Amino acid sequence: MSDEMKEQAFQVLFAVNVSNHTEKKKTGNVELTYLSWPFAWAEVKKRYPDAAYEIERNEDGLPYVYDPKTGYMVFTKMTIEGITHEMWLPVMDGANRAMKAEPYTYVTGIGQYRKEKVCEAATMFDINKTIMRCLVKNIAMFGLGLYIFAGEDLPIAEAPKPGLQRLASQAEIKTTKMLVNALGWSWDEFCKKNSFNPNEITGEQIGKALQYLRSLPVKK
What residue segments make up the domains of the chain, in order of their start? Predict the structure, then answer.
């Protein structure tokens, strides 16, 4: 497959607006954004009927790997137009704590705010849910919904104080760099063209950059 065809496949999926098919879940001060897996898979198949994915299994045929110290991890593999990407995701509870075979306690806060909490043991329901979320992230590697992952799985950025601007997070910059490179540009050129200071890029600038990248016309 030519580089031009690979770029076209990425832009076709990257141009799809997924905003109306996301769900937000908040636990404490953390709010996460999830994209509906049936919608994501349907959008891929409508454009690339031969697309296929695989849920990787261990030597016992189970769809996960497990380590008593670190917990469960699931893996998927997807192929679109001859391109294959892999993805992995740990099984986590609502507080983003790694789930294990047995429940365990952990401490949050200090002093009067110190609390002891419990992370429940993982069930097959938790594993199945994580597999489908892993699949969505796998699909995002091909462009669909990738823009929402600048903040996905990360706490919502605190609002800046009046008169100040929030600097872009490393996750936001990393995601934008990946998109810029995938579209055939260098990061330095992109920053220069948009008058960005690479060391002081604000969250607002990153937001506008992502909006611009999503507005690019799909090559025919």
Answer: 3-96+124-156, 161-220
pLDDT, one tens digit per residue, over 98-109 is: 999 999 999 988
Distance separating alpha carbons of residues 127 and 156, to the nearest angstrom: 25
Give the angle 66-59-93 at the CA atoms, nearest 5°.
25
Reported as a single tens digit per residue, the pLDDT across 179-211 is 788 778 888 888 888 888 877 787 778 778 877
pTM recorded for the entire structure: 0.66
Cα(103)–Cα(120) distance, rounded to whole angstroms?
4
User: Using CB atoms within 10 A of its CB, is residue 101 exposed (0-12), middle (13-18) or buried (19+)?
Assistant: exposed
How far lies 172's CA from each of 59, 111, 134, 148, 216, in Å? 37, 33, 20, 10, 19
Q: Output the CA–CA distances (angstroms, integers) from residue 46 to 13, 50, 196, in the order listed.
A: 11, 10, 37
97 close to 119: Cβ distance less than 8 angstroms: yes
Return the sign of the alpha-carbon dihedral for residues 209, 179, 10, 137: negative
Distance CA 9, CA 219 (A): 9
Options 3.30.360.10, 3.30.390.80, 3.90.25.10, 3.90.78.10; CATH of 3-96+124-156: 3.30.390.80
Q: Which two tokens stand for residue 6?
A: 């690979």
Residue 25: CB partners within 8 Å, gap ≥ 6? 31, 32, 34, 94
